[in-house]
Design brief:
By secondary structure, this protein is mainly α. It has four helices and no strands.
């Protein structure tokens, strides 16, 4: 079950951080709730790797989901992209092990 939450949190956040204009607030609210639920599940199962990832994802999801941060025009959309690029290293370091675990799991099923 923890992998399901992990996958959902990562996919939801990735979609929402790419700048879905008009959907930012709704997707942001969903992403925050999704990450919080995954964080609770990881805490319950003592999954320290997932907890590290969610601790990095949650503040980003909250910031990017803030209605005041919504991209109404091209310049703000570009700024959001720049902000995301700056956060990418932290996300890669914190969530990389989970992403690799998911890839390895999917490889087990084969093409």
């Amino acid at each position: 079950m923890s992998r399901f939450y992990t996958f959902g949190a990562l996919v939801t956040t990735a979609l929402f951080l790419t700048g879905c204009n008009g959907l930012d607030q709704k997707v942001g609210t969903f992403a925050v709730a999704d990450i919080q639920q995954a964080q609770d599940a990881a805490r319950a199962s003592n999954d320290l790797i997932a907890l590290n990832c969610y601790a990095t994802l949650l503040p980003l999801a909250q910031r990017f989901g803030d209605p005041a941060y919504e991209a109404h025009g091209l310049v703000m959309l570009l700024q959001k992209r720049r902000d995301f690029e700056q956060a990418k290293t932290a996300l890669t370091n914190a969530c990389g092990p989970i992403a690799m675990d998911l890839l390895m799991s999917m490889n087990k099923f084969g093409p």
